[in-house]
């Protein structure tokens, strides 16, 4: 196996799972998520010589995936398909097997977050992006990203535990 | 001016990993904000658990399969270009001779073996399918299977390179035999394939090819004859 192929296979093994998780939570469609991940890696293979810094691989892949997602949406829209009203319960990818009520509630709450809030949160938690990196990727000011991340977490907290003391304090200062 | 509770909440909820000294100082001196910080940290832990959906088990294999098939196609295209160039040069110079050997292309054999290994459940299927059921599946890629192939326990349309093909599993003398009907994957001649567990052949067929793969020691010649006789292009 040549070095280029070995590098690609290492990329796939190291990042395909996280990329899939990012995609599935972003588009909320297991099949579309897999398609996006496959397309992303096909693009990555063609451009693999441009990846100089292995530490940036995941960020690079997520950037490609975001572009592929825009392409996929445009294509589906052109075909008259809609991606709205996804039924989470119909998606086996979301069958986590967790019995915890908190996880169930959190899963619902995360899905209910507006995409403007959900996506930067996914980028931070799955992709390990900093606020500045998210701002650059989403073409936003860093302050706007911080606001979205902060609101996202505070919304989730309110949904999860409205009666918690810390949350009451949070609500008092918000 | 020191950080107030509102600023603390905004900054900590935006990035719980931020260990700025102002954040740490406020957290140490404000018990409600310290409780908020614990709650946010717990939220992130729970989020990681919830987000961590399992990807499809064969995701890596499918990605690699698609990439090796695409690479094989582009290797063919590159080879055709070089061949055309070489032929042109020969014509111009007026020489006739051996145009040399080209790189041995083993991407398709690797892709075939990767596909077999990516779908272990296909090999463990035991219940024979009705031939009509099989043909309901295979007709999507304009292929018909007749009853002479033998018992078929698995039939599915799979992505094979940039197009679709038929993935069948039948029985051999020693165990399951995988048959991949690949309408758009060409080979010029019969190719043998082998890894540390499987062996098989890829034979040209109607503009595409068919791969027949079993475990070491399987009598593939008999299986190949049955496949050649029972697989029909519509």
Task: Please summarize what this structure is.
The complex is a heterodimer of chains A (174) and B (234). Chain A is mainly α and 174 residues long. Chain A has helices at residues 3-27, 30-46, 57-78, 101-112, 115-125, 131-138, 142-160, 165-173.
Write a structural description.
The complex is a heterodimer of chains A (174) and B (234). Chain A is an all-alpha fold and 174 residues long. Chain A has helices at 3-27, 30-46, 57-78, 101-112, 115-125, 131-138, 142-160, 165-173. Helices cover 71% and strands 0% of the residues of chain A. Chain A is globular. By secondary structure, chain B is of the alpha+beta class. Chain B has eight helices and eight strands, in the order αααααααβββββββαβ. In chain B, the strands form two sheets. Chain B has a six-stranded antiparallel sheet, sandwiched between helices. Chain B has a two-stranded antiparallel ribbon with strand order 1-8. In chain B, α1 (5-14) runs parallel beside α3 (31-51), α2 crosses α3 (31-51) and α4 (59-93) packs antiparallel against α5 (107-118). The model of chain B is unreliable at 95-104 (pLDDT under 50).
Return the string of H and E elements of chain B.
HHHHHHHEEEEEEEHE
Q: What portion of residues of chain A belong to β-strands?
A: under 5%
Q: Strands of the biggest beta sheet of chain B: in what spatial order?
A: 2-3-4-7-6-5
Contiguous low-pLDDT stretches of chain B (5 residues minimum) are: 95-104
Mean pLDDT of chain A: 81
Please provide the ordered H/E string of secondary-structure elements of chain A. HHHHHHHH
Helix count from the secondary structure assignment of chain B: 8
Overall number of strands of chain B: 8
Characteristic terms for this protein:
heterodimer, A: 174 residues, 71% helix, 0% strand, globular, B: alpha+beta, 6-stranded antiparallel beta sheet, 8 helices, 47% helix
């Amino acid at each position: 196996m040549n070095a280029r192929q070995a590098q690609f296979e290492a990329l796939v093994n190291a990042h395909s799972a996280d990329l899939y998780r990012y995609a599935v939570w972003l588009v909320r469609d297991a099949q579309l998520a897999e398609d996006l991940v496959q397309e992303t890696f096909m693009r990555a293979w063609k451009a693999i010589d441009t990846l100089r810094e292995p530490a940036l691989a995941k960020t690079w892949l997520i950037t490609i995936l975001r572009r592929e997602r825009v392409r996929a949406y445009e294509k589906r829209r052109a075909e008259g398909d809609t991606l709205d009203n996804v039924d989470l319960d119909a998606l086996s990818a979301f069958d986590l097997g967790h019995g915890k009520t908190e996880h169930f509630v959190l899963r619902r709450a995360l899905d209910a977050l507006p995409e403007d809030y959900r996506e930067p949160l996914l980028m931070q938690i799955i992709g390990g992006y900093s606020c500045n990196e998210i701002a650059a990727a989403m073409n936003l000011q860093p302050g706007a990203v911080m606001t979205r991340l902060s609101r996202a977490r505070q919304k989730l907290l309110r949904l999860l535990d409205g009666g918690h003391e810390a949350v009451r304090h949070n609500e008092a200062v918000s | 001016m020191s950080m107030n509770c509102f600023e603390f909440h905004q900054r900590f909820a935006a990035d719980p990993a931020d260990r700025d000294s102002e954040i740490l100082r406020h957290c140490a001196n404000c018990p409600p904000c310290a409780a908020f910080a614990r709650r946010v940290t717990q939220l992130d832990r729970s989020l990681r658990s919830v987000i961590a959906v399992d990807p499809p088990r064969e995701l890596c294999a499918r990605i690699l399969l698609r990439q090796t098939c695409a690479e094989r196609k582009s290797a063919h295209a590159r080879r055709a270009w070089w061949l055309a160039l070489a032929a042109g040069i020969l014509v111009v110079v007026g020489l006739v001779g051996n145009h040399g050997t080209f790189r041995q292309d083993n991407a398709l054999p690797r892709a075939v073996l990767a596909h077999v290994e990516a779908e272990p459940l296909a090999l463990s299927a035991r219940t024979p399918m009705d031939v009509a059921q099989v043909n309901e599946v295979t007709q999507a890629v304009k292929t018909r299977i007749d009853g002479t192939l033998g018992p078929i326990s698995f039939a599915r349309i799979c992505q094979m390179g940039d197009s679709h093909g038929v993935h069948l599993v039948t029985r051999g003398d020693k165990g399951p035999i995988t048959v991949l009907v690949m309408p758009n994957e060409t080979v010029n001649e019969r190719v043998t394939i082998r890894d540390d567990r499987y062996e098989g052949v890829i034979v040209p067929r109607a503009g595409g090819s068919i791969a027949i793969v079993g475990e070491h020691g399987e009598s593939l010649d008999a299986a190949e004859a049955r496949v050649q006789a029972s697989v029909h292009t519509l």
